[in-house]
Amino acid sequence: MSRFEISRRSLIKTGLAGIAASALPMRIATAASPVTVGIVYVGPRDDFGWNQAHAVAAKALKGVSAVTVVEEENVPETDAVAKSMESMINLDGANLVLATSFGYYNPFVVDLAKKYPKVEFRHAAPLWSKDKDPKNAGSYFPYLNQAHYVNGVAAGLSSPSGKIGFVAAKPIPSVLSNINSVLLGARSVKPDATVRVIFTGDWSLPVREAEATNALVDAGCDVITCHVDSPKVVIQTAEGRGVKTLGHNASQAPLAPKGFITGAEYKWETIYKSFAADIAAGKTLPNFLVGGFDKDMLQNTAYGAGASDAAKKAADAAIAGLKKGDPIYKGTLKDNKGNVVVNKTYDNYDPYLDGMNWLLEGVQGSIT
Amino acid sequence: MADMTVQSLSIAQIKRRPSVGTLRLAEAIIIPVAALIVSALIFSIFLLVLDKSPITFFTLIWTGGFGSSFSFQNTLQRAAPLILTGLAFAVPARIGLTMIGGEGALVLGGLSAAAIAIPLVSAGVPAFLTLPVMAIAAMLAGGLWIGFAGWLRYYRGVNETISSLLLSYIAIATMNFFVEGILRDPASANKPSTMPIGDAYRIGAIPGTQVHWGLAAGLILAVVLHILMTRTTFGFAARVTGGNARAALAQGLPVGKLIVICTMIAGACAGLAGFYEVAAVHGQANASLVAGYGFTGILVAFLARQVPLAVIPVAILFGALNAAGGVIQRRMGMPDATVLVLQGLIFVVLLTSETFYGRIPFLQPKRVEDRT
């Protein structure tokens, strides 16, 4: 029976293709423009979060002349992504592939970069290693914690109680850094501010995110922020409870017309446009590109109704400071178990901070 | 006298007509093909409403799924795990159980394979010994997991659909617990994973292709399980149990044992899929194992009408739709959900088409009454 099934399916497909071929000239791989950028997303492009931030930049890139952009969303972190990227190279003639999810890198981007040495691969997390990885691969990553620090500053001056609630996905360094930066930002303007954190355990658990938000509001937090893939649920729930909100990844301002203060946003556009320009000019792309406000890779969402005037002023000043390289982690800081974890001034890109596995004193919550 | 004439006439008729078996086969081919065509037509209306060209759409399905050697390999690679997880649903279905826990068995299989590899790799045990041990560990883990749901079904009367689904969530949580806890590779800071097995221990591609060996394993298992379920006394006993468990018990068939064995086979298939995800795809166990293959496998097996051999072409069809989905997104600017809508449509139309079996006149054997 199955022998027949194979042939019957091929038959339909052949038939349809035949009809199509006679009706239309078959589309052949298009590489008309000198730069074809393939972008892969792990989730939907309109998730109000991580993927949307990239999609906004992709849209801006489409406006650049001589650049073609091809996009694929909802690509899981399995060998499916290898095939999606390869398909972009083989069928669409992509000469720059942007892999935007953490788990795409190893082994998929690395293996494919070895297989296609003439195609440039760039991945949105600081994972590229000079010694091990191919030269046509690389990393780009803005340090979003700087924008969370600005969030903290604005929250400190917009919240009557100084109690900030943080819904976090997993206790990994990049998340912990954002939590600690919110605290340091808030304490820079309100020394008794606190951050209460709840870890949901995974990147996208909408029900648990709503529960966590409610629990934080019940515990007295009057500003809510988060680090999950799509902040939509958290922001909407908090707005519904009548508390103020701070955004994450992309703009959530439309979700909270009453309580939105500001949000930590990536500005991938800067990076993508510079990559496209480098390729068009025949220049070598940087292999490892990290930055923050100093390199115009971050922005804070335009202030919403929840931001006080003092908060706007202080947050603008904080951004100006970060552009000059003002450090966030400085002095002597203890974690919330009493151990000294910072005893000098660290540059905002110090590798020590990349391995962060502590929550500062003033953060209520536990990573274990 | 009149009767005899009619009878001899009908015998002559039957001799010239195709046999019942051929008619059944024709029915089993014509109905699904018609269902596929109907789904394509309905979907074309959907596309026209959105002002998109159906011709472009189906051309791209061909281009992205079968059109070139690259596209076909893309299809086969995506089909590979689906064959195994499809079998994980199809085999218990033959014994009358709706086991939807393939996802959990796959995840636990992958975790077990990665976990047992850690001491073996660090002790320098060669790959040809390590890999079989990993595969066995994965199949055992998956087999015991789904086997447990089967055991609960027979000996404790727990609904297997619910228990296997809930066990999947437990399996995923267990995997996260170990991967983020004692099995975590300290180097995997932002994506908790087990220690990588290393390139020397990775299963490569089938020679001459870019598709990993999981495809071959799926093809072989589909054939073996098809023979087991249709050509052996074990398979017969299982089908009798599936038809009527009480009657099977009354006949003295070891129903409990049959159920546990069938469910263990199913779990082993899904566990093996997990092994290939670790040994051929990721090189380690982490949250990427939860990719939904177990759940897609349910759909695959359903469309294959729980026939193990038919799981192969259906899995390939799904692989092709998924492979082409990317091209459709890129060329037509349509969202990823487009292909899911088509899959859902095929599913509904095919289920509806079930009612046509035995009702299409020209596919039925001629009866004597027809002539009178």
Automatic annotation (TrEMBL), chain A:
Residues 36-286 form the ABC transporter substrate-binding protein PnrA-like domain. The keyword Glycosyltransferase does not apply. Pfam families: Bmp. Residues 1-31 form the signal peptide. Keywords: Signal. The keyword Cell membrane does not apply. PANTHER family: ABC TRANSPORTER SUBSTRATE-BINDING PROTEIN. This is BMP family ABC transporter substrate-binding protein.
